[in-house]
Specification:
Helix content: over 70%
Structural class: mainly alpha
Radius of gyration: 16 Å
Largest sheet: none
Length: 179
């Protein structure tokens, strides 16, 4: 439990001043919600810590060494690292980079579940802003269906599966209402 509190404090400090794209919410709300979902899914302490830290290196100036120096376990850091997007090509749409990224996630059960929970929270945020960003929401939904099918096939956690499907359905419904 202490590691989770330390990770929450560490992530809050790292993300201070950041907000979610298209929302006024403090960025830290996102990793906190993902961590809450991970705890609800009974994923274990390292996974909850990774949920809190999953965007720290990607979206701040901190490094993996900073996480080690802060005393987080190698397992929590490894999970956060698996979730961190990196593109050899520097191009978010590079199919080879995406394939490598998702293959690494799929090789680890906890990383697969955390990635699904991360996307679950992202889908919930999109429901809130669908009126203002309809085109983006439609593209994101299509991308989610395509890229997350293999992760859903491997998902063996009923809570994660149900939460993901509920948010996906909520976004589909929000888009349908706006037509």
């Amino acid at each position: 439990m202490l590691a989770i509190l330390r990770a929450a404090t560490f992530a809050a400090s790292a993300h201070v001043g950041q907000t979610r794209k298209g929302l006024p919410d403090p960025y830290i709300n996102h990793p906190l919600r993902v961590a809450h979902l991970a705890a609800q899914a009974e994923l274990g302490e390292d996974a909850v810590v990774a949920a809190l830290l999953h965007d720290v290196v990607e979206d701040t100036t901190l490094t993996w060494d900073d996480l080690r120096l802060a005393g987080f376990t190698e397992r929590a850091i490894a999970l956060a690292r698996l979730l961190t997007k990196w593109w050899e090509s520097g191009d978010d749409d590079n199919e080879r980079d995406k394939a490598t990224y998702y293959a690494r996630i799929l090789a680890d059960r906890d990383a697969t579940l955390l990635k699904l929970l991360d996307r679950t929270d992202n889908l919930q945020d999109l429901v809130r802003i669908v009126a203002a960003r309809r085109d983006f929401a439609e593209k994101y939904l299509k991308k989610t269906r395509r890229e997350f099918a293999p992760l859903l096939e491997r998902c063996d956690n009923t809570y994660v599966l149900q939460a993901f499907r509920e948010r996906l359905t909520a976004l589909e419904s929000a888009l349908d209402r706006r037509r």
